[in-house]
Amino acid sequence: MANTYLSKTQTSGNADIFTSSTxxxxxxxxxxxxxxxYTGSSNYTKFGIDANDRLKYDDYQGTQHxxxxxxxxxxxxxxxxxxxxxxxxxxxxxxDRVKIYVNGVRVTSWxxxxxxxxxxxxxxxxxxxxxINVQQAGNVTVGGLMSHYHFIDGTAYDASYFGxxxxxxxxxxxxxxxxxTYGTN
Length: 185
What we know:
mainly beta
């Protein structure tokens, strides 16, 4: 099962606003692709963990490039991480157009941060192939397990829709039935 992935050609939806949420358990360090829309070497939108164990959201479309790489490194191969990526390029605050959360906490310390211009379309929800756990079909990125994957088209939800802090243990725990609207895709 380590070399499996999912692919779906998305119908046209909202290319400006979307959310992904998944639980990831790393089985080895290095690159782990959570999801990717790849139409060529200079056209892709992707989210995952890079070769240096940092969270990475990258949107490259010819001359337009938005890039986020965290200072935080995700190197625990024993526990689960909850990763949420919420994109809203229509947000009037440039620094709020991409919000990434790890275990319910928003990432605010970036090694690299290149914000989207206002109302920038992504390749997501634009009739392209959407891959989970792979850079592009056939090029599988191994390095972990995924559980409770959610993709929302048209709404940028924060992590609290998908998890909460356990009042006894203080640990971030899963919400197995989030109250969200999934949209077109």
